[in-house]
């Protein structure tokens, strides 16, 4: 296995259990000289050292309380003694802890207390060593040394807290981006499923409607003249093959990204669509702009599917003998293409036999291009579908 580079190596960190054992070990190490000192030198000082060191056991969970306890212990020491003790090491550790684990306000307050305590300790300890040592040079040197311990501990704790906040922000941002990417992928998949459902509905509804109409007509005609059924059966076979090819194309898109893709219908394909409807027995008048307007592929597909679904509805709902009119025109004033399909049959008065799903698909297609769709009974009878799609 390849050796990890230094740039990719993760920093070593203690876990929660390791942090607890580290604090216990630190406290025990600081307490080791306390018992001999209390027994041999001064029991009172031993109690003071215990009061200053023992709170470090919980310095991560309760940094403010630990700093307060250590600071009070050091204050009592300043009142009772005029010399430093081994336990003074607990103060910079408590200062680091409050700067690392507490809020910034508490951290700044601890720094002020530490600097003030450094001044008190300077005068108390120099005076304990001899009043003649209380010169400006000695005070400045002594205060600077003690304050430096406080400032360094506070700085290290603040840097640790800032770095942890930065890491937490990066982690939160990464999790948020991952959630957003997952949501976007889910929305994209849902939109693709809706698009494929609309395509399959249009293909299946159009093909099956043509097949049903031709089959009914052939069955009725076969009673009088069986020879006229051949064109109907030819239309049924052609329509079925076309529908199967369309379904295979769309299912191939679902199975593999590299599946062969047939060209999407364009406005020029409306002419064969109208001829197909006529061959299926529906009289259709075509009023198409000449030349057909140049539109994007998405607008062309939407217009084609609207005409296809509307003609399917005419065959299903308008009744025998109904004539459909397909009109495609360009509206320069609004900068949109107008697609209108009307019939003079009884479609508006018949029950909604699945037409609602087709109209819903039309509305979704038109809305995707910020267009408008109006459907309903036509003046003088029949049914009208009119879509305005911005270019």
Short description:
This protein has 391 residues and is α+β, with helices and mostly antiparallel strands. The chain is built from eleven helices and five strands. Among the domains are: 16-178, no CATH class; 282-391, Heat Shock Protein 90 (2-Layer Sandwich).
Structural account:
This protein is α+β, with helices and mostly antiparallel strands. Among the domains are: 16-178, no CATH class; 282-391, Histidine kinase-like ATPase, C-terminal domain (Heat Shock Protein 90, 2-Layer Sandwich). It has 11 helices and 5 strands; from the N terminus they run αααααααααβαββαββ. The chain has a 5-stranded mixed beta sheet, with helices on one face. A hairpin with a 4-residue loop joins strand 2 (324-331) and strand 3 (336-343). Helix 5 runs antiparallel to helix 6 and helix 5 (90-101) runs parallel beside helix 7. The longest helix has 87 residues, at 136-222. It is rod-shaped and about 135 Å long. It starts with 15 loop residues before the first helix and ends with a strand. Residues 350-355 have low confidence and may be disordered. It comes from Nocardioides ginsengisoli. Its EC number is 2.7.13.3. Keywords: ATP-binding, Kinase, Membrane, Nucleotide-binding, Phosphoprotein, Transferase, Transmembrane, Transmembrane helix, Two-component regulatory system. The chain crosses the membrane at residues 21-40, 64-85, 105-127, 139-157.
């Amino acid at each position: 296995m390849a050796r990890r580079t230094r740039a990719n190596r993760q920093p070593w960190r203690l876990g929660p259990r390791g942090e607890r054992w580290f604090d216990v070990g630190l406290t025990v190490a600081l307490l080791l000289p306390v018992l001999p000192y209390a027994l041999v030198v001064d029991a009172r000082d031993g109690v003071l050292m215990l009061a200053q060191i023992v709170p470090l056991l919980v310095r991560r969970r309760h940094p403010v309380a630990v700093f307060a306890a250590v600071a009070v212990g050091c204050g009592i020491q300043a009142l009772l003694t005029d010399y430093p003790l081994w336990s003074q090491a607990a103060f910079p550790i408590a200062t680091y802890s409050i700067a690392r684990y507490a809020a910034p306000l508490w951290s700044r307050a601890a720094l002020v207390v530490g600097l003030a305590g450094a001044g008190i300790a300077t005068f108390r300890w120099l005076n304990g060593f001899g009043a003649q040592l209380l010169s400006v040079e000695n005070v400045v040197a002594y205060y600077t040394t003690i304050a430096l311990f406080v400032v360094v501990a506070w700085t290290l704790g603040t840097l640790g807290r800032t770095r942890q906040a930065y890491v937490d922000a990066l982690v939160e941002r990464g999790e948020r981006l991952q959630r957003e990417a997952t949501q976007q992928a889910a929305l994209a998949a849902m939109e693709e499923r809706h698009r494929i459902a609309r395509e399959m509905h249009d293909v299946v509804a159009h093909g099956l409607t043509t097949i049903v109409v031709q089959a009914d007509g052939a069955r009725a005609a076969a009673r009088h003249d069986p020879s006229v059924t051949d064109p109907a059966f030819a239309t049924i076979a052609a329509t079925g093959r076309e529908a199967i090819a369309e379904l295979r194309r769309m299912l191939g898109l679902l199975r593999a990204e590299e599946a062969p893709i047939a060209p999407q219908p364009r406005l020029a394909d409306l002419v064969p669509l109208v001829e197909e409807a006529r061959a299926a027995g529906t009289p259709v008048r075509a009023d198409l702009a000449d030349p057909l307007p140049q539109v994007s592929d998405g607008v062309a597909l939407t217009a084609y599917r609207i005409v296809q679904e509307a003609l399917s509805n005419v065959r299903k709902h308008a009744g025998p003998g109904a004539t459909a009119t397909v009109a495609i025109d360009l509206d320069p004033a609004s900068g949109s293409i107008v697609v209108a399909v009307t019939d003079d049959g009884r479609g508006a008065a018949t029950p909604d036999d699945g037409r609602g799903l087709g109209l819903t698909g039309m509305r979704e297609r038109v809305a995707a291009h910020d267009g408008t769709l109006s459907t309903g009974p036509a003046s003088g009878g029949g049914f009208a579908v009119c879509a305005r799609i911005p270019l």
